[in-house]
């Protein structure tokens, strides 16, 4: 699994801070608290100061205890550093630090190793004098989507369905339209029922908005929406408040832009006897083709999960019928298997040996087609 994407991290600093990183939403998630740091800066500026025994422990996937000092407050913490393959996690007291320092996505953390200790700092942002908010806001038109988010792997996980939204955007564009009583309920960490309208289909859902510190979770029918709309990693959801209702849209983009010289269906295969066996249903796909044309578009987190767990949930769509499926991509070393609903697809499409299946990745979803002979 190649072509790892770059981090928004600087590993050089003239002021003595050798590692800098802009915090992401996963870094400030207090339900699963850890700070992710890229491998090379950690190895260049932290591991060189550890003992050989500690480095061996990390290589063996064991965690190493380190002392950490918050230079903003002078507090000392005992934390743990854990190797995750292509990156490192700082764990232990990280959740406590996120809450105590009120960390948000977009803030910058600076780190360096000094005197046998990991030093870190998240400078306080300058507080500007706020202009009083006009409570009577003009109506929001649907073409004005003030909240936009590219869906991540956790956003489309139907086992734990919720959509986290950044606190500031929710407060600026949704809560401003609520009553004082509704806002008080959220402040008390209670959930509030909201009507949610899918403007793409016209369907209405009764959902819940729940406050989680630095962000808000949209829960209730989110799992149903994921399945019904076939949502996948990389798709963009747009949200606004209008007519006393939360409006959302994830437009389905059917048109695929094919660059000159690029094949619309980069993966093609003649079905074999094992591919159409309904007793042991799976579709085998060649490893290099999958890595070049599917895994390349996945997030680093999704690729790492596939490498460690050997399988990954994905959304799949039959381009011939429009049917949506939740399936699994399983890594077998030199090839990959597509499993889950494959037996149902074999029977529904009456697949036979020799028929050609075509596969591509588009808008966070695996698209397949088996044209009629």
UniProtKB/TrEMBL annotation:
Keywords: DNA-binding, Nucleus, Transcription, Transcription regulation. One of its GO terms (cellular component) is nucleus. Coiled coil: none annotated. It comes from Daucus carota subsp. sativus (Carrot). Its main location: nucleus. One of its GO terms (molecular function) is DNA binding. CDD domains: B3_DNA. This is Uncharacterized protein. It is found in: Nucleus.
